[in-house]
Amino acid sequence: MSVDPLRRYRLIGVIATGLIATAVPLWLARRAVDPPARSPSSAKPPTFVGRHACRPCHQQPYEKWLGSDHDMSMALADEAHVLGDFENAALHTNGITTTFFRQGGRYMVRTPGKTGVVETFPIAYTLGFEPLQQYLVAVPGGRLQCLPFAWDEQRGQWFDLHEADPRPPGDWLHWTGAGQNWNSMCAQCHSTGLRKNFDPETNSYQTSWSEIDVSCEACHGPASLHVTWAKMPAMARPRLDNAGLVVNTKELTARQEVALCAPCHSRRSELGDLDHSGTDSVDRQMPSLLSEGLYHADGQILDEVYVWGSFTQSRMYAREVRCSDCHDSHRLTLRQPGNSLCLRCHRADTYDTKEHHFHQQTYRGAPSAGAVCISCHMPQQKYMRIDERADHSIRIPRPDLTAQLGTPNACGQAGCHQDKPLDWITDAYLKWYGQVTKPHYGAILAAGRAEQSEALPQLSRLAGDVLYPAVVRATALELLSRYSSAESVGALERGLVDANPLIRHTAAVAFTSDDLTNFVERLTPLLHDPSTAVRAQAALRLADVPVSRLKPYQLTARTEALDAYVKGMTHSLDFAFANHNLGQLFERLDRPKRAEQFYRQAIAIDDLDFRPKINLAILLNRTARNAEAEKLLKAVVNHYPEQYDAHYALGLLLGEMRRYREAEHHLSRAAAGMPNHAGAARNLSAIRRFLRQRQQ
Ligand code: HEC
Ligand code: HEC
Ligand code: HEC
Ligand code: HEC
Ligand code: HEC
Ligand code: HEC
Ligand code: HEC
User: Fold this and answer.
1) 268 C-alpha to ligand 5 centroid (Å)
2) Does 341 contact ligand 5 (Cβ within 6 A)?
3) Is the CB of 223 within 6 Å of ligand 1?
4) 84-130: pLDDT as tens digits
5) 482 lies in a domain?
6) Single residue among 171, 190, 209 that ends a domain in this structure
7) Chain centroid to CA 371: how far?
8) Residue 341 CA: which ligand 7 atom is closest?
9) Atom of ligand 7 at shortest range from CA of 265
10) Count: domains in the chain
11) Mean pLDDT, all residues of the chain
12) Spatial contact of 504 and 495, defined as CB atoms under 8 Å apart
């Protein structure tokens, strides 16, 4: 079994680079324990009390929630929760046989473990429910690992999530590897009141939860104050804002409600443990932008991105539609079946008609999918091999964009007529709906992804246009930052003072200036930003600005915000990227010893991550430890022949070590791979000149 390391890296990249660009700190503890207007007698922060405390007084929401997907999100592996066949069932995939059986009342699995040797493991927990269920195995260090063998509830059979892309033991994504570790990769979204508690000293976890599944307080926040208050006789109750509850669901705006679901229903980087205090989706977490690999250029779903990034693109979100308009908040089911869900707001005589969708109501005796609103407006895509998820951007199908950009459309590739050529679809569309003249931001984002120079003014306009969704504007800004021009700098400067935190954050990550005074003047106001994520990012960018350049109050703010950044990274020290980021930070802060420590930890966690290796090599070179530096860089170029930065660093290093022929080889690789890199070209011609002179 062989794996292509580059491919593997790309996969990590999808998960980890998102975190690198955007990973941000813990939501400050002081806010975590600050529900609005508590009475003085109850100065203690509220704690989690569990659903059983709510049941006596809120029977109805309790009954609805019971048995919902939230209730089933994780459970002990017992009779009541295990769906899979454990009566000596077997699964054969990629030459491996896995058996599932019972032993002394426990659920067991026999499959190759960490070393590739077949072992027997007891199942500790279930994860998920429908349409598939996964299983967790406890291993040393407080770790729970996710088996790739899942139970398909509809078909009643076992299947291998990694069948098409098998992972050998030792691989990051093998079930025993860090990529399939529940503590870091899954836990926060599948349980309530989760504390990850990773200890880098012992490389172990003491992860805890208040409740194993997504329970009442996952949305309503820790409710001890409310329960204490409610148990008092009605006359004796003090006046408490929102009855002591952290989240005010009674007066929740549509945006706040969507933000309440966002921590778990978005692709995002973790900002520390969830604290349930806020209703601003950017302060508590950093959602992913509409990035390549995650979304199609026009913002349709591609990878597993959950719902937030899609729904916030929709016109319905812009017009204050919320999750609970369609889903029951407790049972989670749709408020009405079929088209009647949509017809609660949209006119049946306009849209539920053949004049609108041009399809028969029935096809071969059955209701036709062509007359169902969501077939066209929420096309589905499969994840985890069998799980259909609906695109919540609720858009108008655009086969014309398929022709122009190659993005899927609900009529064809993403929907019903996958067997038909595109012409057939565009012809029918033209006949029914006429020529589409409305421009779509997808065209601009696609041009930006391709770094076309004509796209620059359009990206700049899109980034600044408040009529477009924030996630689209932030994506445009991120794409703009790849151009270096006065126009992109101008757009980033405007982004720094935008009203939306997602846009300020994107600008803070990318803003550059040749003029230090300008750089400092533009970024220092963000040290006081209401969003922790933005403050931390500003502090990171300003970390090595000389003290003399900052006013005393700015220095204090920088220290505090940098502390928040370090705390956020510390939360994720079980990932290579966080160690790498701290390595870079401490190098900039002129603390090479600490930097070296973090780089080495990053390499220990993920031996295939090349960035800490390159940075550590450069650091070692500064203290004349060239032999080890050479070894690191050689490892990188052997594994990633197209890592031209590493070729460049290695070329310079070998030149310094007077091994000119080898130096020339790597510099020429670097110059060929990075034609616009002035340093590579200059050093290559210098070394060639030198070699020629030596020959003469
Ligand atoms: C002893 C009875 C009691 C218990 C136990 C209790 N509540 Fe309440 N709850 C109340 C009362 C009474 C109100 C009405 C407060 C008001 O509006 O003045 C309320 C209001 C609420 C509301 C706001 C409802 C609205 O109007 O929007 C929520 C949400 C809520 N409770 C959640 C919970 C949760 C979650 C728990 C368990 C952790 C819980 N409650 C436990 C009595 C109780
Ligand atoms: C603490 C994390 C968390 C929060 C907060 C959360 N969810 Fe979920 N939600 C999950 C998980 C995990 C699942 C999948 C559970 C499973 O299938 O096992 C899920 C599943 C769902 C489903 C799918 C049900 C189905 O039939 O497939 C809906 C709908 C849903 N959530 C809506 C919401 C809404 C609306 C909110 C906000 C009001 C919300 N969730 C808040 C974690 C969360
Ligand atoms: C960002 C939050 C988040 C993380 C992290 C997360 N999940 Fe989920 N998971 C969800 C949500 C939300 C759903 C429901 C999705 C849906 O139906 O759209 C879900 C559903 C599932 C399901 C049930 C299938 C289904 O659709 O109901 C399984 C199994 C599952 N997740 C396993 C995992 C595993 C294993 C990990 C870690 C490797 C993980 N999840 C990490 C949020 C998360
Ligand atoms: C996925 C998030 C979520 C979970 C989990 C959740 N709620 Fe709610 N709850 C909401 C939202 C949002 C509202 C307000 C809007 C609505 O009713 O849809 C609400 C409203 C309420 C209300 C006031 C309205 C009513 O229905 O009486 C009570 C009481 C309540 N929830 C109690 C509970 C209890 C008890 C649990 C656990 C058994 C629970 N909630 C679990 C999100 C949640
Ligand atoms: C709670 C009310 C509500 C419900 C329920 C609802 N919509 Fe909407 N929908 C709206 C509003 C408001 C708009 C924005 C109208 C506008 O901007 O003029 C909208 C806009 C749309 C648009 C236009 C999108 C665009 O980009 O131009 C489509 C398509 C749509 N809805 C489809 C649906 C479908 C399909 C359903 C059912 C799954 C649904 N709607 C359910 C309120 C609703
Ligand atoms: C066969 C595919 C198809 C079906 C089924 C369908 N639509 Fe549409 N819908 C479209 C197309 C294409 C457009 C854009 C052209 C247009 O505006 O007529 C559109 C546009 C819309 C718009 C935006 C209109 C505007 O003026 O911006 C709404 C709202 C909408 N549909 C709602 C619905 C609802 C509700 C249903 C179900 C009752 C539904 N659609 C069923 C294809 C469909
Ligand atoms: C306009 C109605 C509408 C709104 C608003 C809406 N949903 Fe959905 N949701 C649906 C429909 C329809 C489905 C698909 C159900 C099906 O395929 O049978 C769905 C499915 C889901 C699922 C199951 C997996 C999937 O992706 O298909 C999750 C999870 C979910 N919604 C979460 C949310 C969250 C969270 C919000 C708010 C941020 C939200 N939804 C807002 C209509 C809506």
Assistant:
1) 26
2) yes
3) yes
4) 999 999 999 999 999 999 999 999 999 999 999 999 999 999 999 88
5) no
6) 190
7) 34
8) 2
9) 35
10) 2
11) 90
12) yes
